[in-house]
From TrEMBL:
SMART domains linked: DeoC (SM01133)
Catalytic-site annotation from UniProt: 145, 176
Coiled coil: none
Official protein name in the record: 2-amino-3,7-dideoxy-D-threo-hept-6-ulosonate synthase
Length: 272
């Protein structure tokens, strides 16, 4: 267990909160805006002091020098599917914990879609990867989504709470779920588990304020950080946005002050 503890401290640094920027979208959706040039985007992400990024194995050689020169850790994503597939919700393992170690990853991640006809397949893979992580002392980030065909299920507090608990029961060290929309409902999620919960960003939000207040409220409800991709790497200034999120995660900002900083971001000003 010592290996996991050491690596988790690298991820969470000196606080109990974490900022993760997943950039594994290329397999699912192709070279979408913000990740056409991954090394360029990673430079912005490291400038913004993110704690970790999530990548697939083929991109690691392109950015290893950037990660080595920063305090940003690598989380290697082990599961994948593409939007081209007729069964795009079924995630398949495309790498291993051992390969992640060879690439210098601090942790690994997997994606599970609950309620999907292939749920049992993905849970079986989850269990196997969890045991490999225990064997090698590697933290496991479990990205847990409820995708049973009903749009409301993805954010249903009862189902999201269940998804988080499944992740803990199967051995996740960090759990990523959707924010359920309110502090009260998300408390139900975070208090149902004893490992760190981080929120997903979901589809790109319509405003910066919507994103920042979602992060703020999730932290008030017991979240220990974020794992947000498109809303960060598709922002006009990802480094500036991350710096603002860092103020929130480090509890250096009140709700009133957040409104002021949000306006500064919208106007393109530097955050004081």
């Amino acid at each position: 267990m010592a290996g996991k503890e050491i690596r988790l401290k690298r991820l969470f640094k000196s606080s109990d909160r974490i900022i993760i920027v997943p950039m594994d979208h290329g397999v699912t959706a192709g070279p979408i805006e913000g990740i056409e040039d991954v090394p360029k985007t990673v430079r912005f992400i490291t400038q913004g002091k993110a704690d970790a990024i999530v990548l697939h194995k083929g991109l690691v050689p392109q950015v290893s020098h950037l990660l080595g020169a920063s305090q940003c850790e690598l989380i290697l994503h082990l599961s994948a599917s593409s939007n081209i597939s007729p069964d795009s919700q079924r995630k398949e393992l495309v790498s291993t914990v051992e390969h992640a170690i060879r690439l210098g990853a601090t942790a690994v991640s997997i994606h599970v879609n609950l309620g999907n006809p292939s749920e049992s397949h993905m849970l079986r893979d989850f269990g196997r990867i969890s045991e490999d992580c225990q064997r090698w002392g590697i933290p496991l980030l479990a990205m847990m989504y409820v995708r049973d065909g009903s749009a409301g299920s993805e954010f249903d507090p009862g189902k999201v709470k269940h998804a988080a608990r499944i992740a803990q029961e199967l051995g996740a060290d960090i759990i990523k779920v959707n924010y359920t929309g309110s502090i009260e409902s998300f408390w139900e999620v975070t208090r149902g588990v004893k490992v760190p919960v981080v929120i997903a960003g979901g589809p790109k939000t319509s405003t910066v304020a919507q994103l920042l207040f979602m992060v703020y409220d999730a932290l008030q409800a017991g979240a220990q950080g974020i794992s947000i991709g498109r809303n960060i790497f598709q922002a006009p200034d990802p480094a500036q946005l991350l710096s603002t999120i860092r103020l929130i995660t480090d509890s250096q900002i009140t709700r009133d002050k957040l409104e002021e900083l949000t306006q500064a971001l919208v106007q393109g000003s530097r955050i004081p």
